[in-house]
Design a protein that fits this description.
mainly alpha; globular
Length: 260
Amino acid sequence: MPVTYASYLKVDQLLALQEPKSSPEEHDELLFIVIHQVYELWFKLLLHETGKIMTDLRTGDLFGAISTFKRVRTIMKTLVGQLDILETMTPLSFSSFRNRLDTASGFQSYQFKEVEFAFGYKRLNVTGAIPDSEPGKAVAERRLGEPTVIDAFYQFLITRGAAIPSDILTKDVREPTRADERVQDEIFRLYTTQPELVILFELMTDFDEGMQEWRYRHVKLVERTIGAKKGTGGSAGIEFLKQSLFKPLFPDLWAVRHRM
């Protein structure tokens, strides 16, 4: 049979994946399901592109890294924009089907944990929210033990003549990224002596800002929808989400800006 639009994209299977739990179906439950399924597809693409970014950085491919960071920055802006759609759902609309979610919670998104880990925002305790019975838990925990974009970035800086201290290059990959003034010295020097790198540095900062914006918008979405209630599945809800606010993925790129 010839390949068609529907067969190539598995449209029939895709459209069969939305199964509201409310009966009779609450109107906004389909919106809730579609938005979150689309988020998971974007997370999948982010992880795919992150693999290329790490290869580009490790091999010193500046223009490849620039191109791919442009893409992930745009994906992140799209993630933020989709919250506008979700915010059209009122608290009463959400509460009409919220109890049908049972133990389900956004804290269980193993792909988003992977995205966080891939960009260096590592925390040893956050995979506990994912049920042991789900394969995604092992996937997230494996990503926790893998090098990150920032590790590849250090390798890239070395190819451009930066002196990255050995203790940074050999640190436990399960540890989160921390700002280091020695790295900042090298980044600032490259800012001023290799202007072609400025594009990459600014794109990385753009992506980082987008992630922080997404976190903030997500916090405000949850706050306006459920207030101070516990999250679905008994999760910590708004207070846990607030802990991640304004924590940059690339702290050294932010720290050098006062020197400009």
